[in-house]
Amino acid sequence: MLTAYCPRHDATLLFQVSRIDVLRNTPQGIEVELHCYCGEHLLLRRGRTVLPAASAA
Known about the structure:
- The protein is mostly beta strands.
- It has no helices and six strands.
- It has a four-stranded antiparallel β-sheet, with no helix packed on it. A two-stranded antiparallel ribbon has the order 1-2.
- β3 (20-26) and β4 form a beta hairpin.
- The termini are far apart.
């Protein structure tokens, strides 16, 4: 499970791994694309240069 901020909900939510669409290992760190329960597509970046969560749409 992981947490991510959804702008449509205006809240941080808990997601199951089944919500993950794409997982990428990049030179800057790991990128996770997932979809929220409301349908919003989210992009998380984690790693050496951690950036704020952004909407993938």
